[in-house]
Design a protein that fits this description.
- Helix 2 crosses helix 13 and helix 7 crosses helix 8.
- The chain has 13 helices and seven strands.
- The two termini are 20 Å apart.
- Strands 3-4-2-5-1-6-7 form a seven-stranded mixed β-sheet, sandwiched between helices.
- The longest helix is centred in the middle third of the chain and has 15 residues.
- The chain is of the alpha/beta class and 260 residues long.
- 41% of the residues lie in helices and 13% in strands.
- The protein has a single domain, classed as P-loop containing nucleotide triphosphate hydrolases (Rossmann fold), CATH 3.40.50.
- Bound molecules: adenosine-5'-diphosphate and magnesium ion (MG).
- The site of magnesium ion has 4 residues, from helix 2.
Length: 260
């Protein structure tokens, strides 16, 4: 029956912001590990040619044989490129090849739907799929927003007032209109948060009203522990188990459970 088949579908959540350095990748790795701790079957997809997520989970992007690039171009099966990571999550790795994927997809019809279609192939194997987007609003990010049912927008508090939010929300509006009616903005995730800063607190209080967006809680504190984690191929949930940053990501993951 239709209803039952539906219940097996994973929640696909895009983590996007066209600005770099806002903790997209860190959030994908940390939320992925947090969902895995909660017993969820997690797939992470690295959609950035920089391959920071791939590297941070202990996989050498230069040694990857087939990556998401090959999958999107129909040259490899998704299931065949998935790597199991120590954090208890599965990863679809990126590689430098991804720098050429957008150009290769450009001439194709329905190019924004490729990722959605590819994910159908593993849809019953996972409870949640997190998409780590590149810092752009190009074809790969449009693929992510088309495949996703939810969007999380990581953003340092100081940036919340800037124009970038409006630009991203305009894209979301277009995606909903033309590509993916189901897309819901789950919220802004305040990252690199310095609770001692009055400015950060004020901006946080303001952004929800200004853009009509949910602000996910708690904010992720700024801590040096995050810089240490990628070097050992594990997320902060493993390298600094009881840190405030790890606790914050666990709380965010718990708060998102109703959306899975
Ligand atoms: P993006 O994917 O948006 O480009 P990253 O997740 O790569 O951003 O993070 C950018 C930099 O900020 C990285 O060096 C990362 O280690 C660091 N970082 C992320 N979150 C935190 C945090 N809460 N505290 C301190 N540094 C952080
Ligand atoms: Mg990144």
């Amino acid at each position: 029956p239709k209803a039952r088949a539906k219940a097996h579908k994973p929640a696909v959540i895009a983590v996007a912001n066209q600005k770099g350095g806002v903790a997209k990748t860190t959030s994908v790795a940390s939320l992925g590990a947090a969902f895995a701790e909660l017993g969820k079957r997690v797939l992470l997809v690295d959609l950035d040619a920089q391959a920071c997520l791939t590297f941070s989970l202990g996989v050498d992007p230069d040694a990857v044989e087939d990556s998401i690039h090959d999958v999107l171009l129909g040259q490899a099966e998704l299931a065949d490129v998935i790597v199991e990571c120590e954090d208890g999550v599965d990863l679809v790795p990126s590689s430098i090849d991804l720098a050429g994927t957008e150009a290769a997809l450009l001439g194709r019809p329905a190019r924004e739907y490729v990722l959605q279609q590819v994910l159908e192939g593993v849809s019953t194997d996972y409870d949640v799929v997190l998409l780590d987007c590149s810092p752009s609003l190009g074809v790969l990010t449009l693929n992510a927003l088309t495949a996703a049912s939810g969007l999380i927008i990581p953003m340092p508090a100081e940036m919340l007032g800037h124009r970038g939010v409006g630009q991203l929300l305009d894209t979301v509006k277009d995606v909903k209109k033309f590509l993916n009616k189901r897309l819901t903005v789950l919220g802004v995730l305040p990252t690199l948060y310095d609770g001692r800063s009055n400015h950060a607190r004020e901006v946080l209080a303001d952004v929800g009203e200004r853009y009509g967006l949910t602000v996910l809680e708690p904010p992720i504190p700024k801590t040096v522990r995050f810089a240490e984690a990628p070097a050992v191929g594990r997320s902060i949930l493993a390298t600094a188990r009881s840190s405030k940053g790890a606790a914050a990501y666990r709380d965010i993951a718990k708060g998102l459970l109703p959306h899975l």
